[in-house]
Every structure is written in C-alpha cells, then in structure tokens.
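Subject: Predicted fold for DUF3943 domain-containing protein, 325 residues

User T.R. writes:
Posting the sequence so we have a shared reference for the thread.
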Amino acid sequence: MACCLVLTPSALAQDSPPHSETSDDIKPLHIGWSPKDIPSTPEPVASSYDAHSNPPTRLVFPVASFPQKSLEPSPETRGYLKPPASNPKGPSEGATDESPATDPDEAPAKGDGQAPEDRFQWGEALRQAALFNSLQHILRFATEDGTRKEIKGPFFRDWFQSVRNLRGWRDGDPFLVNYIGHPIMGAASGYIQIQNDPRGRYLEFEPTRKTYWKSRLKAMVWSAAYSTQFELGPISEASLGNVGRAPRPDGKSPMSYVDLIITPTVGTLWLMGEDALDKHLIQRFEKRVRNQFWRGIVRSFLNPGRSIANAMRFKGPWHRDRRPL
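User M.O. replies:
I've generated the structure tokens; pasting them so everyone works from the same file.
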C-alpha cells in the first residue's frame, strides 16, 4: 500500500505533459522596460464576445471641464488697439457725458467720412437750375416781341449797358408779374436747392425747429443767387434781350431792384406757405380722398413752386419724396 502511494505521484507526473517554465499566455515582468519591448505590429487579440450577440457595455466616466484661459492677446500686447479711457469720476460724483446729444439733422459734415448720398448734390442742383433758367428765357423769346428785337447788337457792350442802368424800385411790370410770378419763381428755385439737400429734403413745415429755418434760409440764399443770375448774369434778361438798356416811354428803367429783392424774400415766404399747405391741408385731404387723380391735382395746384422744381428733375408735379401718390 505504501508503495502504491509512493509510486502514484511519480506515475501521475509521467502521465501529465511536461510543464514549461513560461506559459505562452503569461509573459514575464521586465523590470527594465523600454518602448522597444512593444511590438511594431500588435498581436490580434481574440475577442471574448464573438460568440455573444451583444458586445460588452462601455463605461464612460464624465470628465470635468475646467475654464480655459483665452489665448487671444490683450489690447495692450497687440499694440494697435488701446482700451477706452475710464471716466475718473464715478456716478456718485455726477459725471456726465461731455459730448451733447445733437439732432441728426444738425450733425456736421466731416469731409470724406460723409457718404455721397448725404452731401449736397451740386451737380444735380446746377443742372436743374440751368434747365429752369433756359426754359424761362425760351418763354421770354416766345412771348415778348421786344426781347426778340433787342437780341441784335454787340453782346458785351449792350449787356454792360443794361446792368449799368439798374436803378429805382418800379420797373413798369404789373403787380401780377412782380408780386406773384417772381415769388413763385423764387419758391421754385428754392425747392431746387431743398430737393438736392439731404438735410432739408424731408423736412415738413415746423417753424419751431431750428433745422427747418436753417434749411429754408439756405434755400433763400440759393434763390437770391439764381435771381441775380436771371436778371443780371451772363445768361440773363440783361444779356439776352438787353432789358434795361433803353428806358421805357414813361421814363422808368426796366432794370430795377424790385425783382432782385422780391424774388428771394417773398419767394421764400411763398415756399414756406406751400410747406404749410402741404402739411395741414393737402395731407388732410389725402386722408379722406383715395382717388389718385384728385390727389395729384390738389398737390400740383396748391404747391406750384414745388411742382415746377419737381419738373426740373423730371418728376411728376405731384411728386413727394416720402409720400407716394
């Protein structure tokens, strides 16, 4: 029995396969590990879930996100951007903004920083004024026989002689011409300035606003310049037709100061009257009447100066920049 017990372990040892010192699946631990020990091509690992229908569940651990400091350089390090200067006075000290708020209509124009559409349209204004002046002289030659007769003779000598004969107040023309026709002419020339000035184009009759008066005073200066050219300039009554060169049968000079003064002054008052009619009468009429024909008729006949100026820019006499018919 003892022999059997002694022999049994050895027999078992002979029957069992020899044991290698190192298993294929277990690698020894190298204390001096280096990256060279990692094979260039990883060995394929047999998937332990090939036989299963569902892969193992991955565990995802949330990672806290910490705020990162912005890498954008500060204005001081850029060198070309400076931070705004802080107000040394706090709100408790009553610090106020030093730049007063101004009306947008009163904002000053600053050179090239102003957009072209925000500047006074000199080219258009001069073209419209030249067209108006030409049409007036064409009307003179078509209706005045004396103007056609005086076209003969030395141009410059007769022109200067007509200008030198400027004197007195009354020129012999009827009241309708001097105090109705010339004011309408002054209003029309003033509206030519207004419709080419972005700061005055959309202003309505508001006599309490400073911007309204500034705009209409500019129109009066423009009207005075236009009237002077029409009466005495190189393309004027004095040069074309030589009005004033010869006195009238009653001894009065046809070239007097009445037209030079009445046209811009009373013409500007006429212009402001048309503004008032447009705001307080025409607009009220348009709120009640939707017929475009009657609206156009009322606009055209109650604002004759504006209607003429609209025609000089090839618009309908009833045209309004911000109010369609």
